[in-house]
Design brief:
Elements (H helix, E strand, L loop, with lengths): L1 H46 L5 H16 L3 H7 L14 H24 L1 H4 L3 H8 L1 H8 L6 H32 L1
Helix pairs in contact: 1-2, 1-4, 1-6, 2-4, 7-8
Length: 180
């Protein structure tokens, strides 16, 4: 039993650390795409006469769509609470440029928050919480979601019943058999 717990603990702990570094690499990759797009926009801005701002906006629209349209699923994953509607070919140039600025700012903010939370990924208590809440997560997987307190109580009762059955299961079974 202890060996199973240790293996589960190490798996959850390793997953927590691996997930942090995978998310960090996704942030770095996406930020580099934004930086490449920013460099292209700066080059294009220098090449266009300032009197033709509409021409620059259309070029900026094409550059942003070409470089970042394929990044939208990853942006949605990294910025789940972003209010920006993203990039679409049906949007006009100003809206795409505005969305680009908002997403760029949100991405940098989310990345800095992710870096700040680095210490929490090495917290040895989090895997214990995950292991303790496995029974309620199984229920949630089947569609029965409980609030925080109810899920903790359910998990506690399930774990206590598991220990009782493990250590006294044969006695309980024999007692029930004698009752019948």
């Amino acid at each position: 039993m202890v060996a199973v717990f240790i293996v589960l603990y190490l798996l959850f702990y390793g997953y927590q650390i691996l997930n942090y570094f995978l998310t960090k690499s996704k942030f770095i990759s996406t930020i580099s795409k934004f930086q490449e797009t920013d460099n292209e926009l700066k080059e294009r801005r220098n090449a266009v006469d300032i009197r033709y701002n509409g021409e620059f906006e259309e070029d900026a629209r094409r550059i942003i769509l070409k470089n970042l349209m394929s990044e939208m699923p990853r942006l949605r994953e990294l910025l789940p609470s972003s209010y920006s509607s993203g990039f679409s070919t049906k949007y006009d140039a100003r809206r795409i440029i505005t969305n680009y600025s908002e997403l760029s700012s949100d991405l940098i903010t989310a990345y800095n928050e992710h870096i700040y939370r680095m210490k929490s990924c090495f917290n040895p208590i989090n895997p214990l919480k995950e292991i303790f809440l496995i029974p309620s997560k199984i229920l949630a997987w089947f569609g029965l979601s409980l609030d925080t307190i109810a899920s903790r109580v359910f998990s506690l009762i399930t774990i206590i019943l598991g220990f009782i059955i493990k250590y006294f299961g044969e006695d309980i079974f024999n007692w029930l058999k004698n009752l019948l």
